[in-house]
Design brief:
The chain is an alpha/beta fold and 246 residues long. The protein has a single domain (2-242), classed as Phosphoglycerate mutase-like (Rossmann fold), CATH 3.40.50.1240. The protein is built from eight helices and six strands, in the order E-H-H-E-H-E-H-H-H-E-H-E-E-H. The chain has a six-stranded mixed beta sheet with strand order 3-2-4-1-5-6. Helix 2 packs across helix 3 (59-71) and helix 4 packs across helix 5. The longest helix has 21 residues, at 152-172. It starts with a strand and ends with a helix.
């Protein structure tokens, strides 16, 4: 049996302010830093260890990983960063207030952008500073691969390609893997693992800062999954995410 531990980054500054973030590189809030420290304590107390870690190019996921590895005395393990584990790109919504956008455009449309599987938000112009092709961290990536906006389906395609080609081979070698990523990134993976339909995925919520494990058989079919720490706390955190507008 194989196991992989996942964690959504702690609360970010823009999470707290209810701003659409996407690929905007904002940092953790003080609350998010506390969440990462608590996550590390939970994993350490449960005597969980890691050999290798994966994260995105965005600092809120990177810093969450740093805090966890630091407090577990695992700063020395290899860490692989990839844009394919970035959050969903929210296009022209990035930087906008979620409540104000909902009042202007309508809550139903905002929730469709946030929770729908096929719907992309309005795209960025390629000349926009927010387009990843204008960001030096993505300079080595073919601009044709970089999104101007993404649906959850788009996210799932890029994430699962990385999972199958890069992460799974490490797990098969017996490496104990930790993935620090983002809400929609992890939603797309859980949707795949649990065979959640495109209709029901709208109700799937991943809380910030609470690690969870998936277990797989030799064919990488899911045999079990659970949150670490207090299950009631994880459930309440997921319910808070469900009440957000994006």
């Amino acid at each position: 049996m194989y196991r992989v531990v996942f964690i959504r980054h702690g609360q970010s500054i823009w999470n707290k302010k209810k701003i659409f973030t996407g690929w905007t590189d904002v940092d953790l809030s003080p609350g998010g830093i506390r969440e990462a420290k608590v996550a590390a304590s939970i994993l350490r107390n449960e005597k969980i260890c890691f050999d290798i870690a994966f994260t995105s190019y965005l600092k809120k996921a990177i810093r969450t990983l740093w805090i966890v590895l630091d407090r577990m005395d695992l700063m020395w393990i290899p860490v692989h960063k990839t844009w394919r584990l970035n959050e969903r790109h929210y296009g022209a919504l990035q930087g906008l207030s979620k409540p104000q956008t909902a009042r202007r455009i309508g809550k139903e449309k905002v929730m469709e952008w946030r929770r729908g599987y096929y719907t992309r938000p309005p795209e960025l112009e390629k000349e926009d500073d927010r387009f990843p092709g204008n960001d030096p961290r993505y300079s080595d990536i073919d601009k044709k691969l970089l999104p101007a906006a993404e649906s959850l389906k788009d996210v799932q395609i890029r994430v699962m390609k990385y999972w199958e080609n890069t992460v799974v081979p490490q797990v098969r070698k017996g490496r104990r893997v930790l993935i620090s990523s983002h809400g929609n990134t992890l939603r797309s993976m859980v949707m795949h693992f649990d065979n959640i339909s495109t209709r029901d995925v709208k109700d799937l919520n991943i809380p910030t800062g609470i690690p969870f494990t998936y277990e797989f058989d030799d064919n990488f079919n899911v045999t079990g999954h659970h949150y670490h720490g207090e299950q009631k706390k994880a459930q309440k955190a997921a319910e808070r995410v469900a009440g957000e507008l994006g």
